[in-house]
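From the shared-data thread, chain only:
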Amino acid sequence: MVNSINKPPFWYWIVSVLALFWNGAGVMAYLGRGFVTDDMIAQLPKAEQAEFLVEYPAWYTAAFALAVFCGFLGCISLLIKKKWAYVLFIISAIGAIIQHVYLFVNVDITGAATIMPIMVIVVCLGLIWFAKQAIKKYWIN
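Structure, as tokens:
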């Protein structure tokens, strides 16, 4: 087995940067939820205001934080070509799955609102696969 680094293809960088933006949006959603003020909530439409009145358990918030921050750090790891991206993406996926299973079981999510949680989980699993392939092809070490 050779332990050298092969040069990743151009599309590796495109996928890594797009994934960074995706996970950056997740971090912004987490921070936005955590730092929203009562005045900000009052300016939202009534349907969206109700969402901010729901109290989630602390473990749910922890799972959300792990999902977004580990995903973001995993993307940075891809960009600096470190294989701990794989472990970070696994932790991110576990957090996202816990978070979204809780939502599907305890919150009334129907129709188009189910698309985003499913998409989040699919992207998490895709990033795990992507990092594993990058390790296997010696693009990251």
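Residues 10-34 form the longest helix (25 residues).
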